[in-house]
Design brief:
The protein has about 350 residues and is an alpha+beta fold. It has two domains: about 80 residues, Arc Repressor Mutant, subunit A (Orthogonal Bundle); about 260 residues, D-Maltodextrin-Binding Protein, domain 2, CATH 3.40.190. Strands 3, 4, 5, 6, 9, 10, 11, 12, 13 and 14 form a ten-stranded mixed β-sheet that branches. Strands 1-2 form a two-stranded antiparallel sheet. The protein is elongated, with a radius of gyration of 24 Å. The N and C termini lie far apart (about 55 Å).
Length: about 350
């Protein structure tokens, strides 16, 4: 049994196709097929059911492949340990970010990283939470920035900041001059939401769960519509189609009227999301994670409560479903315009 053979069976399990797996491993298909057959003969088991256009994994094969993934991950960790002795901040860091955070955090974050640790370029990828977690498990990302709550995945995390939500309305809407809005007020309005897969959509529905009942045509009038991005939804609101809820960092100036939009805060308790960075427990470049945390804390995001790093990044397990606690000492609010109310 070799690491190469383990790599091959993991590739086939992911691709469900010997030819595609061979391409992913940069080998000829006969080479890959012979190696997998050799491993099956050595173990005395069948890992894959062959036949038809798609390969399926046997129940025992699934268990063996899961163990092979862990072995390959630990092998990568050994290599990273060797690199860490040289310089944990040297070399690229593969960082994932969810779609509703990336456009607003990445510009200042990349600038701060270039200024603070120019020897550690960021390789960035925006995606949905579930996909970023998959890439982390597979070792294709080193860390990812996302929002709580998270599904179970056994990784480590560190809180970065808390971000309140605000309501965006057309400039001529009756609410445009209000000082604050209750979440209950949204029940009677046509709301614009992100599509399925965006965690921010789920967080908005938690603020006003009644919206879920009107998310598709049915017995009553459809009162929610979906957009593919926050920027698309902004333009739909400006057109007078409806209202929406936005993360505070996406609104540079709460008092701006130049965009045909008005932004109104929520009444206390202000709904918010907690943004965290997540990484594999086996990832050894902790100094790189700490550098990202410090660079995020130095970003001037409007209206968010930043956690101030106070030393080494702790290795905290992420439980089954993480619910933000409300004890948040040592934080800095760069923009008092929308400082969350005391809880």
């Amino acid at each position: 049994m070799t690491l190469t053979e383990l790599k091959y069976i993991v590739a086939v399990a992911r691709a469900r196709h010997f030819g595609h797996a061979a391409e992913a491993c940069y080998v000829a298909q006969p080479t890959l097929s012979v190696a997998i057959k050799k491993l099956e003969d050595e173990l005395g088991v069948v890992l894959f059911e062959r036949g038809g256009a798609e390969i399926s994994v046997t129940p025992l094969g699934a268990q063996i492949i899961a163990q092979a993934e862990r072995v390959l991950e630990q092998t990568a960790a050994i290599k990273e340990l060797a690199k860490q002795n040289k310089d944990p901040l040297a070399g690229p860091l593969r960082l994932g970010v969810i779609y509703t955070i990336g456009p607003y955090l990445l510009p200042p974050l990349v600038k701060n990283i270039i200024e603070r640790v120019p020897q550690m370029p960021l390789i960035l990828q925006e995606n949905f939470t579930v996909r970023l977690l998959e890439l982390l498990r597979q070792g294709e990302l080193d860390a990812a920035i996302m929002a709580l709550p998270l599904p179970e995945h056994g990784m480590s995390m560190q809180t970065l900041y808390d971000e309140p939500f605000v309501v965006a309305v057309p400039q001529n809407h009756p609410w445009a001059k209000r000082s604050a809005i209750s979440a209950q007020d949204l029940k009677s309005e046509t709301m614009l939401l992100l599509g399925n897969g965006h965690c921010f959509r789920d967080q908005v529905l938690e603020v006003c769960p009644e919206m879920a009942r009107f998310s598709s045509p049915g017995n009553g009038m459809q009162r929610t519509f979906e957009g593919s991005s926050l920027e698309t939804i902004r333009h739909m609101v400006a057109s007078g189609i409806g209202l929406t809820v936005l993360p505070r960092a996406s609104v540079p100036d709460m008092h701006s009227r130049s965009s045909m939009l008005a932004f109104v805060p929520f009444e206390a308790p202000v709904p918010e999301r907690r943004v965290v960075i997540v990484w594999r427990k086996s990832f050894t470049r902790r100094a790189a994670i700490e550098a990202v945390c410090e660079a995020v804390a130095a970003c001037d995001l409007p209206g968010v409560e930043m956690f101030v790093p106070d030393g080494d990044v702790p290795d905290r397990d992420v439980p089954d479903r993480v619910v933000p606690d409300r004890v948040m000492p040592d934080r800095v609010v760069p923009d008092r315009d929308m400082q969350p109310k005391a809880r």
